[in-house]
Design goal:
alpha+beta; 375 residues; 14 helices; two-stranded antiparallel sheet
Length: 375
Amino acid sequence: MKPSALTTGCCAVLVLAGCGSTAPPTAGSSPVVPGAMQAQPQSQPAPYKAEEIEAMVAPIALYPDALLSQVLMASTYPLEVALAARWVKAHPGVKGDAAVKAVQNESWDVSVKSLVAFPQILEPMGDKLDWTQKLGDAFLARQKDVLDAVQRLRARAQQAGHLKSGPQQTVTVETAGAAQQTIVRIEPANPEVIYVPVYDPAIVYGGWGYAGYPYYYWPPYGAYYPGDAVGSGIAWGIGLAAAVAIFGNCDWNNGGVHVEHHKATNIDRNFDASKFQGGRWQHDARHRQGVAYRDHATREKFGRSTADAAVRDGFRGRDAAGGRDNGFQGVDRGGSAVQRNTSRGNASLQSGSARAAGVGGGARMGGFGGRGGRR
């Protein structure tokens, strides 16, 4: 009996359906997609070591607690620090509370605005943007470790006889928590007048034991410390009437910083207290102005908080077109690009506009100067 045409056709279809087919993958095997590119994990920078963090906070560890907290907050917004430092240099006669009132309409974060009251802090932060950015990166990633480093240095300064109460400050020591942690607090002797100490860390801390991690240091800026020298300890300079500029404090027990809402509103009329649950400070990625975050964890945590994809790529330190690291990048207040010039030994802020060029001119990024145990 001959097969029918229908039977023959069905067999042909079944044969053709099997042509070119491959056997299913065996258990445990992985299918290979031709031409597929396997994603390579991005290398991550090593976490900062405790000694490295101590070197970063060495020049500010003896600041009054409230002022220290505001420096730490502001360091997470290095581009706005550069702009504010430029404003301070352009207005040398405006200091203290008067300076804070003068910048109320600026778009900077409240922590950055508060520091215009203290040009002897803001100018070095603007001149040493590499340090400012590193400090901010460390604080974003490891707030408790940064505050613990401050406490270790304060204990050493006390042991060396250089940290004690006086006309400029009140120093108190207490123990707290189940571990009976020793906490050294520093507050202004007069809440209405704030003194900013400047010192050589190798002297006030009784030496520097980390040869691999030189401490950061800058000498007193003459305009703010007339006649003062740090050879024998601490230079105090001129006290500033700047009570209005103080709105933060250190939470030594829990390893963070706090914000007093009603005081922050006096500095920034647009301050949004709803973003600070329980008064605990939260980093605001909008004020990062496109400066790249250092590591994957902070990029993922803060880079996602902006709705604009192009800006988000900038926050994550990526060039969306080429996938490259864009370094220190952002925009100036006129909308022009500001980014790191990596072709020079000491990188600086560069811009196509005269306004940002002014920022770059006074914002050299590099070491703090000095040799041996400091930089």
